[in-house]
Amino acid sequence: MNLQKVYFGFRANDLEIKSLLLQSDWFCRIAIFDPKTGEALPQALTLLFSKVAAYEPPNNGDAIHDRLWRITEHSRASVERLFNALNESPRREQAWLPIHAVRELDANSFIKLSNRPGRTIREKLAGKPYLQAVRRFQSANLPENRLLKAFVRRLADLLEVRLDCLGQEDQLLAKIQSWLRSDETQAIGNWDNLPPNNTLLSHRDYRRVWDAWRWLQTIDEDIARDFSQVKAREDAMRVWTNYAQMWKKSRHHFVEMPILFDYERFEIRPWLSQLAIQQSKQTISRELRREEYFEPACIDLTSLRPSYATKGAFRSLCETYLWQQWMSDGKSVDIELFNADAAYVHANTTLVSAPDLFFSNNKASDNFDSAARTFAAKLREVFKNDTLIWLVPDSLNDFKLEIARRNLNARFPDAEPLPRSVAAVFEKVDYSKIKGDGFPIVVIDTIGSKTCVTKLIARCDSELKNCLPETSGFYWERCPPVVIADTDSESTEGKLYDLITVDDKGQWHDATRPKKPQFFDQSSLKLDPRVGQFEFCINLTESPVVGGIRLHSLQLRAGNIPLWRDQVSELSIKVKKDGRYQRFHLVSRGTTVKPIRGQSISIPVDEYFTLLSGKPFYQFPLYQGENADELGFLARLDSPAFPLRNDVVCKLNLTFEYGSDEPYKLVFTALDRSLLQVRATWRKTEDVVITDAPSPQYPAPKTWVELRCMPKLESNETSDLLDWVMTAITQLDRDLFRTTGQIASDWQRDRNGAHVTYVRCNDTNNEVFVRETNFAKGFSFESFSKGDEVSFALHENAGKFTCRKIADVKYREPVENIRKGLRFPIIQIWRDGRSIENTDCPLAFSDDMRQGIKYFAGLLQNDGIPSPVKYEILFLLACMHKDSPDECVQWIVNQVNNGSILDPQAVGFALGDVTEQWQEDARSKLVAHRTFDSLRAIAYAIWRDQHFVERFNLAELQSILIGLSAMLGNIARCPPRSGERDRSTVPNWVRATVEPLELLLGLLRTRGSSNSEIKMLLQPHQKITKELANQVERVAEIVARSNVPIFSRLQINIHKLDGDHRTPDLLYALRLYLTGDDGANAIHITSVSDSDND
User: Fold this and answer.
1) What angle separates helix 932-942 from helix 917-928, to the nearest 10 degrees?
2) Which of 86-95, 224-233, 981-990 comes out lowest in average pLDDT?
3) CB atoms within 10 A of CB 156
4) Taking the complete model, does pTM exceed 0.85, yes or no?
5) pLDDT at position 809, please?
6) What sign does the dihedral 1067-1073-1079-1081 (CA atoms) show?
């Protein structure tokens, strides 16, 4: 079986052959062939059904789309282009040329000339003025052209057969025959079936000819195979025809998916193993009307089926603006769901809707660009005018609109973005009700999970009143929008409004209707200082596209006078200045621009900018608004002149062009002209997913041996903390239970002139010698005389007794002295989970300390001990965590259970290594009843034991981070001291500022967790990490403005870059860790000095 027999059989009405050709025609008409490869491309299920349902066999005289048709169509455009521009190559040959035409001679030319008679050249050429010379010319006799000639010759033969048998003439046949008769073609040699060269494989047109030639070589074998499979091909046609008829009857929902085609195997198969079909309770509307408008239009792309308005129409598009990418085994297929009944939502698909172009938090992938390009092309099919006004949510800035703006501008030369609030004003406001200049109104718009309030103020323009009387001379000035409610957009992202969905388990879900906007009380809005007073409020419940088209018609009449103006939000970058990062304002507050398409407006930047030397490029993150919210974009400077040898001071030239692909243009111009102008490029901040960002390392725990030889500060000597504690407890007993006695004699002077006397007491057999220097602070020897009662601490050394800290009998030792003697050693000994029950704890110390703890517990029961002293003892016992007696445990548990934490440091220390049940219960309740005080306690505990942070699960950590973010946000500038005696305000502020920062640094140790979810929780690309990084930068600014040094109990060894010396170590370390900077690897936390917080 070959092509000629097929055509003869068709003419002879052979039913089997007719069936074969009609099958090929059916497949070719419903398939879409790749113009580059010729392969049948995947397409959406709905598109396939619409083609199959509309298919009709060709009538007499209509071209049958068979294999020869496919070959011809694949190569048609390329063949026609090649006929007019063949590849050519320079050639040279020996030829007899007249003297005046000779341009080049070679050795053969001189040999031929020397053989001619004559003594000189003149004599040799006298009889015959011709010379054998080199002739150069362009030749088309190349392998690719030989293939082209062979291909079109064979193709022409088959087209003639089709013309003879079927009466179907192809216009290409006449062009081929004409080209074959040309002189240029005659000079092309025969094709020798050579392997394809680079030109055949890489040239756009020759490659198509090569593919068509290969198909032409096997066309007879392919037809024979098709003929043997007529029955199977008929069955495949019947299956898809039945599906298409079921779809056409509009009683079943079909879930959209890609359909794959294989032309050679006559195969059409869905992406999944089977189609998902559900019977509908009512007839489905499948109105595939083709709408076309040739006048300007206003469209709102914030819904799945965009609303639009023209001068005479206001409705929604019937298509669903939804795009989907399917992935499997590294291959992907993109489909449009414009007329889909339902959509699949599972892990192997990516859905992008028109609203996602505005509200999605992750628009970095190429999927959004592909979807936007598809949507723009579809809109162009509907709206034929170059002017398209598209509404923009007020909550979005110009940088977030980049994808939608660029793709719409590519299809509509006069595309104009318009804030929804402005369109609402022109739709709802009656100019006659405006009372005068400064008349304010607000527009409330809930869209994209955000509720935005935008104030617009009426301004008077006398020229506008004369030009457009119905406006009463008022134009509108839009103020920066205020977001008053913001739900988690991630939770709603991907929901398909007004469309049925099917999940990866095959469950069908009904279309989700948008929620009604939340009601906001106007009186409460007026009390919001960000909004202020206004005359009346517009609540947007429907798309204000009618207002957009009304504005356009009015603007055409107003000419160059804009009917609204825009107050651009503050725009700034962060640069290092005076050793810290500060905001450098590009756009100041209150800057107003005229939104005129195609007109560039200059925005003055008063301050000069210094480019530091030695950097290969410069980049600065962008911030917007009064609160400096990060935009997710940065300004980058690149120039061949970088790196600079010296610092260069530049003037900044900033311009704004409304509606252009790049609205803001920023140019750096050197004042000394040592550098050519450098234009900044705006780049999206790259969200590099880091899974192993540096984490803070916990200081190495001390051993019991090391505790006995702790180095003293600023000294080469060491201290034995174990002996220190026991000695201090003994001294405490002396200080608390003082010896009483009576002055035995009058004051005398010794040989040095100092006053001395003796004291008689019952604890010694002899009187004790006393000097005037032995009195406690605040007491003088002059206040006491012979016979007066005194109290003192009695000390014995080698059988001799001395009195110290002499005072009256009511004197009690100050708490500060107890802290000084006991806090440091006890805090250090019992940190890192150490206990006197440890096997490596010295036995003598363990036994002595058990008695010491019992002694402390006894003091708590003694009514004669002052409350401040008992409080200090409770704190010391809390430091001993699981060695604490019941009295201290109950004190800690009561604080946690009652939600009233008196001493966060004591509670944090008491948690220890959380090995006791009461410790675990307290830890859980601190998280469950999260308050600022409970977070402060966790801040102390997290740096008390190396493994404490591992006790939290993912949900608890997320809860802590929410509270920590609020805690950081609550930090304000240090309040002034109330007077010279005020010694608590500044320390309290420092402590309240440092504690959440230390907690954050401790939580960053979760990056080393063995749990993958916990490990990823605070990686640099995470949303919460970025929020915390912004909070830390804000705190750094507050600390710098407060001009108060902050000290952390964490001793951090860190190398700072030049210019960062003024940034506190704790803030500098957090900045590196949160951003994932490699410099964080060089940070070492050497120790934790908890006693520094005394």
Assistant:
1) 130
2) 86-95
3) 19
4) no
5) 74
6) positive
